[in-house]
Amino acid sequence: MKGLIYLAGPLFSEAEREFNIKLAGMLKNAGYEAFLPQEDSSDNSKSREKLDSRVLFRKNVCGIDKSNLVVAILDGGCDVDSGTAWEIGYAWARGIPVVGLRTDFRTLGIEGTVNLMIEECAMGIYKSVEDLLAFLDQKE
């Protein structure tokens, strides 16, 4: 394996969860291990009813701490998902590289693609899964 990637992104709609699973599969096919919170920390609507939120929080923090890289899904309009923003900031503070994936073509106008605090944490923000995978392939 090439390393562990923590996949940060929204996981609240069926479409988001399906995209996350698809992206995790593509990362695995490229030789990476992927930590996917909706699966690896059981962060979903059913578990949130049963598990203490502190348990989910600790599992996700542990997943980030063990990762070599965070891939953050930055789709969703002008604002990044708040949980994803926290994961990006935490990874950056821990010295774990962050790469953004933003397939959403909306921008903040003259300010940039996403909030400058998010943008400055990322090594790069890629507009397609193919571009992201090409970057990861070059990085090796």
List the helices and strands and how they pair.
Blueprint: E1 4-8, H1 14-29, E2 33-35, H2 37-40, H3 45-50, H4 53-66, E3 69-73, H5 82-93, E4 98-101, H6 116-121, E5 122-126, H7 129-139
Parallel strand pairs: 1-2, 1-3, 3-4, 4-5
Q: How would you explain this protein's 3D organization?
A:
- With 140 residues, the protein is of the alpha/beta class.
- The chain has one domain: Rossmann fold (3-Layer(aba) Sandwich), CATH 3.40.50.
- The chain contains 7 helices and 5 strands; from the N terminus they run E-H-E-H-H-H-E-H-E-H-E-H.
- It has a 5-stranded parallel beta sheet with strand order 2-1-3-4-5, sandwiched between helices.
- The longest helix has 16 residues, at 14-29.
Q: List the uncertain runs.
A: none
Identify the strand order in the major beta sheet.
Answer: 2-1-3-4-5
Shape: globular
What integer is the average pLDDT? 88
